[in-house]
Amino acid sequence: MSDHAFYLWGAYGVTFLLLLLEIVFLLKRKRETKA
Amino acid sequence: MLDAAFCVVRRDLLLAWRRRSDVATALLFFVIVASLFPLGVGAEPNLLRSIAPGVIWVAALLSSMLSLARLFAADYADGTLEQMLLGASPLGVIAGAKAAAHWIVSGLPLALIAPLIALQYDLPSALYGVLALSLLLGTPVLSMIGAIGAALTLGLRGGGILLSLLVLPLYVPVLILGAGSVDMAAAGMGGEGQLLLLAALLVSSCAFAPWAISAALRISME
Amino acid sequence: MNWFWYASPQTFDPLAGRMAPWFAAAAAALCAAGLYVGFFVAPTDAQQGEVYRIIFIHVPAAWLSMFIYVVMSCWAALGLAFNTRLSGMMASALAPTGALFTAIALWTGSLWGRPTWGTYWVWDARLTSELFLLFLYLGFIALQAAIDEPRRADRAGALLAIVGVVNIPIIHYSVVWWNTLHQGASVSMTRAPTMAAQMLAGMLLMALAFWMYSIAVTLVRVRCIIRERQG
Question: pTM here?
């Protein structure tokens, strides 16, 4: 099953990366509109 | 009310007749696209026979969509559309009539020349009737739904491509049912179910789309 | 209670600012709980082993992608009916998050398919419907991006969202029918393992977490939109 670790990590990893990117871009936008 | 509808249809047909080449190029596009697929996938007859309904339908979709951008553009440019909005006739009637004229000019010819394309793909001649009927039922739906997209993207930059992006997902049921009816008939199971569903889509789009088209026109024209 | 008190962007802005952190905290807590249940409480599946644990984000993401579209079109309808500016802004604020969850559902579904069914993509009914849902989201975002004038953008997007939400069941059922016609021998790849209660609990917790996350992100985004339109 260890070869399936790639799929698990790939799925969870990309998901949380995308969510993190959304938060980062949103906070950047928030900073720019407050200015 | 019907007077207004006939008047608009007659006018649009007259304008299309004066620009026959525009209409002809859309049909030519249909034929060319359908001719490209064998070059891409190989000319093996069994393969072509199996992809024929799908290819013809996708080509019809794209061809119908290409002429949508022109649906309101000319009237928008010279102010006629504004007069239609302000006029006494219900905008939904006018919008529906314009979509109907679009179908007569771009969808109906497709349904008529589709058997020729089917001949190129070696589709059994028994299926020509189902193919033509599915296109006859489906292309008006494409005109109606496409007119909503055309009204929403009126005057926007990137209009044609944006229109395609908006309208193609909405075309999916028509494509599935249309191509599916011919596939079912080819498999010997009869395509009546899909044709009936297409007819249902036709009736409901004719009932509801004019309202959506006129709402979209008002949004775009303010 | 005056339902329209908070319909003004000016009064809603501070309220959104106060609410957002709570939803963010709830999202974090629920996510922690969901992942704990998903990885330490739910048992290993007999057929798929550990890789089935992808469902703890795949299914909640798919649920949210559809839920957000419906909510988006509700805001759109409200905006068209009552001509309130804030409703249109809420719809615009929801769209990117909805599109993101659709993309996540597609990505995780693809990665789940590879080890279980041997292929990264199948034209499975639900994945195909999800793909077209993504196109509907992107069309909405593209249309609003193409219109410079904000009120026209709101209303045009609203109409498109409503037309889309009416079409989603039609698209879904036609794709399901198409899929059964062309299915052949393969089974639907999104068939989840038979649900142990802990698995369901994990999925529900993650769904709630994503929901709280969406609300938090949407509230922050709508505040940005309010401020961008003021200046």
Answer: 0.91
